[in-house]
Design a protein that fits this description.
binds pyridoxal-5'-phosphate; 8-stranded parallel beta barrel; TIM Barrel; De-COase2_N; binds lysine; alpha/beta; Lyase, Ornithine Decarboxylase, Chain A, domain 1; 9-stranded mixed β-sheet; decarboxylase
Length: about 425
């Protein structure tokens, strides 16, 4: 469910025609629907209404300040993985008591920033990190609230690059070592053990891996309790998939019902870290056809957006639906939508049946609201594109287009070279 729809043959985001934004802002641009973001948050939240829970939006999915602010106003927290994400979440007005911090390589500086910000908890990913956090907290005369991120060795059945809960992955503490680590954590002076965390992967389209991982976490929490370690927060991470193409992911309600069944009787507050399911279908990337080219093998539609703007197709072979901004009777042709970058991997769609777009046509690359702009880069010295937020009949430029000066801003030429 999202708010990108056709009216009188034109694609709108809520009540704003995309062609109006294109005319005024230029292309390419990302556009997000406030109504869709709100709806996705509210549906997720309502699915868990019968149990105590906190929803911490995964900032890595979409870290625009306006998006974070909108979610924060709905009482959403943040799942962060860096000092930069913490900075953004705080600037956007997110309550630090709803911020959880994961990531395998937290630096001393980042740990200090998070301790001073009094976040809800650190999700610890290694023994050495635990010791470092204890040391920094001691220096600051604080107690660090922590959860251990447990690696339950459950196959999430998703793309290997976005699987995180298998033994071979770098994430978390192996379940076999967790008890020992919890006992050690509980013995440290500047650590308060409050939670247990797991996140097994992203874009999951089946419920069973979630259920398997949750069962492992529930058993562990019960055993910890019998050893005198009381877990208040069970953080089950994010990972719920969305429909890009043919997938049929479970709805938040189906997911919630199963999870609630598994945790019944356990006295914990659940924490969730959804990213994609909130933001994915709330955004599209709009691009314009610069040139078309036909070869013996296929049609190329050369557009003004590129792999630096949306990396998912080349990084994971991801499918993003391609729709015309102006509805019409396009002939279907076989080919690629490619960008101007000097890489063969620079495509937004490859070897697909596509509308026979012509020079100047606007194209909407769908489901680009999560891991779209946040993974973009300046490769080929391309200024990053603007982000637009639509609310009903108004649109706001919530991140302006970068300029050439932005590209070179942080650089300098040594005088005595
Ligand atoms: C620790 C953690 N939490 C939450 C997420 C968000 O995942 P998703 O966008 O699939 O909900 C991720 C990314 O996979 C993650 O690494
Ligand atoms: N960046 C990935 C998701 C990985 C999430 C990080 N744990 C994607 O676009 O699908």
């Amino acid at each position: 469910m999202h708010h990108f729809h056709y009216k009188d043959g034109e694609m709108f985001c809520e009540e704003v025609p995309l062609k109006k934004i294109a005319a005024e802002v230029g292309t390419p641009f990302y556009v997000y629907s406030a109504a869709t973001l709100k709806r996705h948050f509210e549906v997720f939240d309502a699915s868990f209404e019968e149990v105590p829970h906190i929803i911490c939006f995964a900032v890595k999915a979409n870290s625009n300040l306006a998006v974070l602010n909108l979610l924060g106003k709905l009482s959403c927290g943040a799942d962060i993985v860096s000092g930069g994400e913490l900075y953004r979440a705080l600037k956007a007005g997110i309550d630090p008591k709803k911020i959880v911090y994961a990531g395998v390589g937290k630096t001393e500086e980042e740990i200090e920033f998070a301790l001073k910000s009094d976040i809800l908890m650190f999700n610890i990913e290694s023994f050495q990190e635990l010791e470092k956090i204890n040391e920094v907290a001691g220096r600051l005369k604080k107690k660090a609230r922590i959860a251990l991120r447990v690696n339950p060795n459950v196959d999430p059945k998703t793309h290997p690059y976005i699987s995180t809960g298998l033994k071979k992955n770098k994430f978390g503490i192996p379940i076999e070592n967790a008890y020992q680590e919890y006992e050690y954590a509980a013995s440290l002076d500047n650590i308060e053990v409050v939670g247990a965390h797991c996140h097994i992967g992203s874009q999951l389209t089946e419920i069973s891996p979630f259920v398997d991982a949750t069962k492992i976490m529930v058993d562990m929490i019960k055993t910890l309790k019998s050893k005198g370690i009381n877990i208040k927060y069970l953080d089950l991470g994010g990972g719920l998939g969305i429909k890009y193409n043919e997938e049929m992911p479970p709805s938040p309600k189906e997911y919630a019902d199963k999870i609630i069944d598994v945790i019944r009787g356990l006295d914990v507050t659940l924490v969730f870290e959804p990213g994609r399911v909130i933001a994915g279908n709330a955004g599209v990337l709009v691009t314009r056809v610069l040139y078309t080219k036909e070869t013996e093998l296929k049609h190329f539609k050369i557009v003004d957006a590129a792999m630096n703007d949306l990396m998912r197709p080349i990084l994971y072979g991801s499918f993003h639906d391609i729709k015309p901004v102006k509805e019409g009777h396009y002939k279907t042709v076989y080919g690629d939508i490619v960008g101007p970058i000097c890489e063969t991997g620079d495509f937004l769609a490859k070897d697909r049946n596509l509308p026979d777009f012509q020079q100047g046509d606007l194209i909407a690359v769908m489901s680009a609201g999560a891991y779209g702009f946040t993974m973009s880069s300046n490769y080929n010295s391309r200024p990053r594109v603007p982000e637009i937020l639509v609310n009903k009949d108004k649109y706001y430029i919530v991140r302006r287009r970068e300029t050439y000066d932005d590209l070179i801003g942080p650089e300098s030429i040594p005088e005595d070279l």
